[in-house]
């Protein structure tokens, strides 16, 4: 790779990151904003925006992934290393709901927020599986839950409590209610999962995770996936 090629890739990555940061700023102001407004906030032209993001939905997806990567991935790393796994799940959901409440424009900008949320949460299937195992070993969460269940349950909570938005008190109430239903005490056996859905869900979740370090792939775009080290979650 020539120095000129590396320079172009660095410039492209910098523009992509500026556009995502600009979109987050616009979304946090309460509106979804026009693509022209977002490009202007980033200091680039609309043509540059379209070179990186072919549609509003692709930009919205990149912003959501940025929130997950910057805000939730460190929390997951910490949670997998110590503390109550059940409390960690509660904290993760509450934190994500707080972030989405702060950046309401992201929800308005998405063509299908429910599908987008489900896709994003599946990218965390590996650390969720580790947390679930820890919680089950500590007898904090019922033993018949499977890793595939976790993104689904979290997606139900996130979407249900974000559209329409719930108050902080209501969020805590219903998140606690759902996680209390996962306790092993007097739990009735769950109906079986559809095996086809499980296989497809596991495949799409693990495919979405890029097992790579950003230091090895400095030219990678933040749009391309959540970066985790192999086996870093135990």
UniProtKB/TrEMBL annotation:
Residues 216-226 have a biased composition (Basic and acidic residues). Residues 212-234 are annotated as: Disordered. GO terms for molecular function: DNA-binding transcription factor activity; transcription cis-regulatory region binding. Transmembrane segments: none annotated. Residues 34-53 bind DNA. The keyword Transcription regulation applies. Pfam families: TetR_N. Residues 13-71 form the HTH tetR-type domain. Keywords: DNA-binding, Transcription, Transcription regulation. It comes from the Bacteria. PROSITE patterns: HTH_TETR_2 (PS50977). This is Transcriptional regulator, TetR family.
């Amino acid at each position: 790779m020539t120095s000129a090629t590396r320079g172009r890739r660095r410039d492209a990555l910098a523009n992509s990151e500026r556009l995502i940061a600009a979109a987050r700023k616009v979304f946090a102001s309460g509106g979804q904003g026009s693509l022209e407004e977002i490009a202007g906030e980033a200091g680039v032209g609309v043509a540059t925006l379209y070179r990186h993001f072919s549609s509003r939905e692709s930009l919205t997806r990149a912003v959501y992934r940025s929130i997950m990567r910057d805000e939730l991935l460190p929390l997951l790393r910490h949670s997998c290393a110590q503390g109550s796994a059940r409390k960690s799940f509660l904290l993760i959901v509450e934190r994500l709901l707080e972030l989405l409440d702060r950046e309401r424009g992201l929800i308005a900008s998405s063509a299908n927020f429910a599908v987008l949320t489900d896709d994003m949460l599946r990218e965390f299937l590996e650390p969720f599986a580790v947390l679930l195992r820890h919680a089950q070993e500590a007898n904090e969460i019922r033993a018949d839950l499977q890793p595939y269940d976790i993104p689904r349950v979290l997606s139900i909570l996130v979407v249900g409590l974000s559209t329409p938005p719930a108050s902080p008190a209501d969020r805590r109430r219903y998140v606690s209610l759902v996680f209390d239903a996962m306790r092993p005490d007097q739990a009735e056996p769950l109906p079986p999962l559809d095996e086809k859905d499980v296989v497809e869900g596991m495949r799409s979740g693990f495919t979405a995770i890029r097992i790579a370090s950003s230091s090895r792939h400095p030219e990678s775009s933040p749009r391309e996936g959540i970066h985790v080290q192999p086996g870093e979650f135990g």
